[in-house]
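**User:**
If convenient, please work through this fold.
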Amino acid sequence: MGNSALKSHLETSQKTGVFQLTAKGLQEFPEELQRLTSNLRTVDLSGNKIEVLPPAIGNFLQLKSLTLNSNRLTGLPDEIGKLKKLETLSLNGNRIQQLPPTLGQLKALRTLNLSGNQILEFPPGLGTLRHLDLLDLSRNQIRNVPAAVSELQTIELNLNQNQISALSAEVSRCPRLKVLRLEENCLELSSIPTSVLSDSQVSLFSVEGNLFEVKNLRDLEGYDKYMERFTATKKKFA
């Protein structure tokens, strides 16, 4: 991409606080953006070939939304934790295997999209994200959901299309969790903790495409209680 095109993008961004440059074959995070660290609120560099997010990302202190879907990122720098105003971090379709512990410092974060990466283990340390509405970890390679999941404050947890065969009963203790998606995993009926049905806030529990027929959920203890929450939620939004 020519310098003049980038220059006009930068001039516009200085006024609007938005920098969007998608599907342009960029191989690295544009260094020129450093001039706009105090202006930028939204950056979208989706559909490029960026492999590394530089530590300098930590300088963009006004950033509210950072989107790098469909790039080639394998990880994130620790400096990401400095973005205290960040509300949306979207990294779908990259090659990320694990997350830096500093991610837990993003106190304003509401949406964390990590679908379609190469994450093998459920990410620890996200319980400090008190305002999280959505944690999307679908289409990864996670095999189990550990007890530490109980710390999560998210309202929706999407784990569709992983390789999950073990689900900790502690998931029922997530204080704000209303939507739990576990479609197309490797769960047996016996792996479903009944506390999710009988003793949680979950009002939408989505488990199609596992190693049992969904109708057999009805045989589990607590199913009636779950259906009460499910129906009440449905009525609320009807």
In short: The chain has a mean pLDDT of 95. The CA atoms of residues 181 and 221 lie 20 Å apart.
